[in-house]
Amino acid sequence: MAVQRIVIENCAIATVDAGDTEYASGHIVVADNRIESVGAGKAPENLENVVRRIDGTGHLATPGLVNTHHHFYQWITRGLATDHNLFNWLVALYPTWARIDEQMAYSAAQGSLAMMARGGVTTAMDHHYVFPKGSGDLSGAIIRAARETGVRFTLARGSMDRSEKGGGLPPDFAVETLDGALAATEATVDEHHDASFDAMTQVAVAPCSPFSVSTELMKQGAELARRKGVRLHTHGSETVEEEQFCKELFGMGPTDYFESTGWLGEDVWMAHCVHMNDSDIAAFARTKTGVAHCPSSNARLAAGIARVPDMLAAGVPVGLGVDGTASNESGELHTELRNALLINRLGAHREAALNARQALRLGTFGGAQVLGRASQIGSLEVGKLADLVLWNLDTLAHASIADPVTALVFGAAAPVSLSLVNGKPVVEDSRLLNVDEDAIARSTRAEAQRLARIAAQA
User: How many angstroms separate the CA atoms of 50 and 341, rounded?
Assistant: First the structure.
């Protein structure tokens, strides 16, 4: 079958390549699912099989956004426990979360994915760790929702085996056994993980956190991931309380504990990493352990300000995460570009903490690094997969900002005129093409109400 091409012209382009190459007015040629050409001026002449030609005047083209941490199921528990810190928030919500079933997980995943995709996310990720007995095929439901939305997806198959009776936070009925969690995780990898260059679905091994998981699950989870050749993900160093918990339970801080269980390495990424000292950052840099920075969630739960500028200076891979929508009710990643920049400027580095282009890199190439896909996505370069976004900056909100990257990051959220994933349109004129947003809104509202009724009756 002949190669089919999409040509985009007359747009500003931020490639986010190694040299941060930009074009004030340039072109992108997509051939099937790969980027065939990107550069200044018009596209090459006499291209064959051009099925679509797009005038990008007034737009900025960037790589698609890459989300590196999320909990989709939380979409149906938004707006609850809004004045709690992390541990109190978890205690308040675990009894409700432990009542989810397959239909709830599917509907919540639809809502989470739709919100991200319509805001420029082309690669999504979900850390799902709540598997109540008899709840159905939750992993399959989440993956089905991602496939229907049309985004590239990593499922971090989570687990918990340390309940309240073992000194953890989850209710006893909300956790799995050690052997059950390991077996189910391996089965999920075997059924769903695709290691190919243009994979749409990948799976990572992801015990939830030090305070909800046994040391054996951490150790054997790491061994499982490396035996299967997949990545590892968990929460780390999110709050002061977590650090105290680790010291009391394990006799060491979170980073030393992770290292003792095999959880530092270039195949590992951690969510949050707010409370990191110099030696922690050095350990992450030495081992190339990645970080999913979630600025809005960190602020919502009063966790603190992660030392992102210091991590970047040390060479730690850093991407951006929405986090679950019970701690970031907007559910959008493009707003995290702005929030990452602004919140980090409240830290020690002040105005020198991050600039607009660094923020864009966090949300694109940085995320690709963290997910282990930097050779495939995260920048607009010849041979990479055609995951890209055309942002409309020809609006009142951006009209007087001359620099397009500054307009995108510092300005109001820009509308998405076009989003391509694997060379296929997923969003046009700010509307999703593959799923019905209005139907999803109705479904998620109904499932949130059903979950609330079930939790109230428990």
Answer: 39
Closest CA to 255 of 232, 277, 226: 277
pLDDT 10s digits, 63-119: 999 999 999 999 999 999 999 998 899 889 989 999 999 999 999 999 999 999 999
Nearest CA to 142 among 160, 122, 121, 127? 127
List the structure tokens of 368.
Answer: 């690709």
CA 214 – CA 324 distance, rounded (Å)? 23
Instruction: For the chain, state the CA radius of gyration.
Output: 21
Residues across the chain? 458
DSSP state of 200: S
Angstrom CA distances, 423 to 122, 138, 387, 388, 404, stand at 11, 29, 7, 8, 24
Cα 157 from Cα 389, distance rounded (Å): 28
Distance CA 317, CA 289 (A): 7
Does the pTM surpass 0.85? The reply is yes
Q: Angle at the Cα of 297 (from 294 to 300), degrees rounded to 5?
A: 150
Q: For residues 39 and 24, is the Cβ–Cβ distance under 8 A? A: no
pLDDT digits (tens, 9 = 90+) for 396-434: 999 999 999 999 999 999 999 999 999 999 999 999 999
Separation CA 210–CA 61 (nearest Å): 40
What three-state secondary structure class fits 79? coil
Residues 6+ apart with CB under 8 A from 148: 110, 434, 435
